[in-house]
Recover the amino acids of this structure.
């Protein structure tokens, strides 16, 4: 079970990092205008959070043999197929929701900074 959880978090971390990279690239593009960059980051990281929730739903509907977590497990680490879907879906859901919450927290922080910078006149 621990290897399934580890593989699920590796997969979710990679998915979240690639989506966050797009949001960070957009923020870098508008680095000359900090308020606009923070607004873009807030929207971008909110989309990352939505993406992670959708990824959790997609993993739940996916067949176990085609799941990335199942493929990355060695043959001796794989649980019996009767319980594999339940274990993999649970671990994947937990990992995706964890990174989704992190992305949502970053989004809220960027929006708070945007409001604060707008009020101070930056």
């Amino acid at each position: 079970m621990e290897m399934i959880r580890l593989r699920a978090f590796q997969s979710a971390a990679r998915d979240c990092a690639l989506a966050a990279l797009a949001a960070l690239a957009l923020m870098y593009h508008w680095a000359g205008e900090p308020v606009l960059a923070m607004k873009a980051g807030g929207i971008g990281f909110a989309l990352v959070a939505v993406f992670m929730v959708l990824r959790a739903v997609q993993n739940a509907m996916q067949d176990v043999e085609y799941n990335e977590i199942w493929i990355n497990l060695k043959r001796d680490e794989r649980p019996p197929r009767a319980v594999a879907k339940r274990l993999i879906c649970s671990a994947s859901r937990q990992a995706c929701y964890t990174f989704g919450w992190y992305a949502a927290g970053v989004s809220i922080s960027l929006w708070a900074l945007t409001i604060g910078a707008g009020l101070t006149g930056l």
About this structure: The chain has four helices and no strands. The chain has a mean pLDDT of 93. The chain has one domain: 2-120. The CA atoms of residues 61 and 89 lie 9 Å apart.
